[in-house]
Write a structure and sequence with these properties.
The structure is a homodimer of 474-residue chains. Chain A is an alpha/beta fold. Chain A folds into two domains: 266 residues, Zn peptidases (Aminopeptidase, 3-Layer(aba) Sandwich), CATH 3.40.630; 147 residues, 3-Layer(bba) Sandwich (Glucose Oxidase, domain 1), CATH 3.50.30. Helices cover 39% and strands 24% of the residues of chain A. The first copy, chain A, has 16 helices and 14 strands. In chain A, strands 1, 2, 3, 4, 5, 6, 7, 8, 9, 10, 11, 12, 13 and 14 form a 14-stranded mixed sheet that branches. The termini of chain A are far apart. The N terminus of chain A is likely disordered. The interface between A and B is large, with 37 and 38 residues. Chains A, B: It is found in: Endoplasmic reticulum; Golgi apparatus; Lysosome; Secreted.
């Protein structure tokens, strides 16, 4: 070892020292909680991990997650709640699964929203004529045929709206222009914008797209009207146009917009799809993997949530192909109508409430299927220690991170909030919200190798949790 | 100095050793060419550099380039060749300059293309119905009112087209789907697509947008029809849709598109604008800074080329405000109709051909005004040595790089190819082609601090070249 190498090691050592201490303390606590025997048992799954990873990354399954996702997405495109294309895509997934000789498949019907976007146009009339790129928000009502023409009031947050005088808002178009922090924090300006603005007398509401980056990209998403307010039209505009209007108003000029939007809204019947790879010892006990099959009407829903759907489809398929039957059942659920408010998940939770004790652990991938980094986990300390121990098996792909999250995922939050432990795929999704709910949610966002890593990781984690000697404690 | 610091220095030293040798050799040659006296003279401009940088980065001009650009872009939006809004924006720039008490301003009229985009719609009819995001290319003819419906042939490059049998192309829509390498290399698939496809009997041509990244973003741009070919409609589609169609065709399926496009085309009169800050000793000798004022009809032309226009506007303004009058004249040119093929620059070159000996050095910024990194320089070795020596003054902002480029810039290539030395702003424009010719070319791409750095750098370089005792040799 030469002087250069010694120096580098020394530097890395100094840098890692403090972090290492924290990790060691946590690790000591978990070691006490789990005991040596369980730790040895978990680490013994290294062989299964290797088998699955070889099969998915180098063997017959290599590239299959990407290819099957591409075929699916290219065939159906967008799959909005309540549409025939969504139902056809559900039938397709059932056939695709049956072709793998997995036949424990049931669907459960439920009523879902069916909101159809019509023509949408927002035009700045003053101080100059400019068309804005726009996407109406889910459930938005139409404007009158002649549109709505009004002056704009722009606010940064709800407090600024609430502090405005009624007469400054009445008859105006309100633009919500929040600072994007996280999606969780900021998306409330989309979901509540119409209700809040209407309550103060606005005639329409627009929201700065809930995104950190844009190439003139409007981002749609769901919203719902509160009780006792006039339902006013509502849409997302781009970061660029929000900033433009902000600058113009800051210069003391008046902005007048004309909004023309049409849509229709009713309900339809859709289905959750439940695929079981029955456990060999305790088939009633479930380890659930899941993603949603519906998407927004723009883009192709490749990322949201085609990727999550397909890594969750892949888990029982890979196990079946490798003849790996765990003690407990691995259940894969393809949720429907997530985008309109976790409609499928609510229906499932209600229908299966009295068997909820059977859910040993529930997983969901709905925040991208980029390179896996670990899991965001809800559960008590013992549950998290078990998951942390399992994640140690993924050091070679750098997927050992356990993020403590009391409400991971979207659909599964409906289940985990009843006290059932669960996890969401933690992945390298830094750009996720660049594409989310836009026309840019296509196969171009997806990466073959990252999807392979995702499928292999997802399948291995599900297998181990479904197979170890202990249940995940609550 | 502790062991850690010694280690780091040692590592950095090893890493930089080989690069340093190359730079030292070049530097030795330049030292011989320039001689100590000129080198000392150039380095003596450190004081002027400091004065300009203080004024622009911390003084009265701080933020002004961004603010003035934003006011301009927000007021006029897109400024396509041949439009009234472009002419109004030219008048505005003249007034803005006059307000700085700079009155040596002339405009020179010329005939420019006036192509107006109408309705554009491309719909995939088979294997499923999908609207494609699309932008017609400059000068494209319209389709018949009923549109053009035909099967698609997709090719990677011109060779693949040329090698195709006539009967495989005849009556088809050709999609050019080149691999993006550099803009210079790849954009030929936009500018020549219609001509090449038409020559083989295609009824329309589409081109994968000339860009490395997309959020469903079509990129327009110019094209021209060759002699003796039928003029067929031509447009850019997104990376996403090009890949989608490629995958579908690779699976053996047929793709049928319907293209509906309308446009009109005539010519109008526009103007180049010439602003002179007269030199104190040799006013006939010109150091030109320039950018183009026209833009594409989508987006706002903030990046292409609002930034270049405004740093070039700023150069004489800053010098005037600081009462820095160099020996030679600093001329700022706002080119018109660049986007339709350097129309303004050609007219200028033709009109001023017999005074071309007066151009000491010509500069252009038309590749973004992100953080300046240096200059891309055309000229003989002595010229480049002088510029390299000047660039040494910008070490503190990391803008010392001289890129040897025989044809830097766009408009000024018309001048430099006659043997006149010149340079284009070399800047940190990695994402330039993400936004180029899209609706996303807005103020959101621009950064206040980077524009300040650009203005300060541009002004200082122009001043030094205009003031040093020697002409830039040819």
């Amino acid at each position: 070892m030469n002087i250069y190498n010694i120096c580098v090691l020394k530097i890395l050592f100094f840098l890692s020292l403090s972090q290492a201490n924290v990790i060691k303390q946590e690790s000591d606590t978990c070691q006490q909680i789990l005991g040596d025997e369980l730790i040895r048992e978990i680490s013994s799954y290294g062989n299964v991990r290797d088998e699955i990873f070889r099969y998915v990354l180098e063997g017959e399954f290599k590239g299959k997650t990407y290819d099957e996702l591409a075929k699916f997405v290219d065939k159906f495109g967008a799959r909005p709640s309540g549409t025939e294309v969504l139902e056809n895509s559900i039938d397709y997934m059932i056939e695709l699964t049956r072709a793998e000789d997995i036949n424990d498949i049931v669907t459960e019907e439920l009523e879902v929203p069916h909101w159809t976007r019509g023509e949408e146009r927002v035009t700045m009339l003053q101080p100059r004529v400019k068309n804005l790129s726009v996407l109406g928000l889910g459930r938005s009502v139409s404007t009158p045929p002649e549109g709505i023409t009004a002056e704009v009031v722009i606010v940064t947050d709800f407090a600024e709206l609430e502090n405005s005088r009624e007469e400054d808002i009445k008859g105006k178009i309100v633009i919500f222009d929040p600072v994007y922090t996280t999606y969780g924090e900021t998306s409330v300006y989309r979901s509540q914008s119409a209700t809040r603005a209407s309550a103060k007398g606005a005639v329409a509401s627009l929201v700065r797209s809930i995104a950190p980056f844009s190439i003139d990209s409007p981002h749609t998403g769901s919203q719902s009207y509160g009780q006792n307010v006039t339902q006013i039209p509502t849409a997302a505009i781009t970061l660029e146009d929000a900033d433009l209007i902000r600058r113009i108003i800051n210069r003391g000029e008046k902005v007048i917009l004309k909004i023309e939007m049409s849509s229709s809204y009713d309900t339809k019947i859709s289905r959750n799809t439940i695929v079981d790879l029955k456990g060999r010892e305790n088939p009633d006990s479930l380890v659930i993997v899941s993603g949603h099959i519906d998407s927004w009407d723009v883009g192709q829903g490749a990322m949201d949530d085609g990727g999550g759907l397909f890594v969750s489809w892949a888990a029982p398929v890979i196990l079946k192909r490798l003849n790996l039957q765990p003690r407990r059942t691995v259940r894969s659920i393809f949720w429907t109508a997530e985008e309109f408010g976790l409609i499928g998940a609510y229906a499932y939770e209600e229908k299966h409430r009295d068997e909820n004790h059977n859910i040993n652990f529930i997983m969901e991938s709905d925040e991208g299927t980029f390179a896996p980094l670990g899991l965001a986990v809800a559960g008590n300390q013992e549950a998290r220690c078990i998951i942390a121990e399992i994640l140690k098996l993924f050091e070679s792909i750098n997927a050992t991170t356990l993020v403590e999250d009391d409400s991971p995922g979207s659909d599964i939050a409906v289940i985990t909030r009843t006290g059932i432990p669960g996890a969401s795929l933690h992945n390298d999704n830094e750009r996720y919200f660049w594409f989310h709910h836009t026309a840019g949610d296509t196969m171009n966002v997806e990466d073959e190798r990252e999807l392979d890593l995702g499928s292999a990781f997802w399948t291995t984690v599900a297998y181990i949790i479904a197979d170890i000697s202990v249940d995940i404690p609550r």
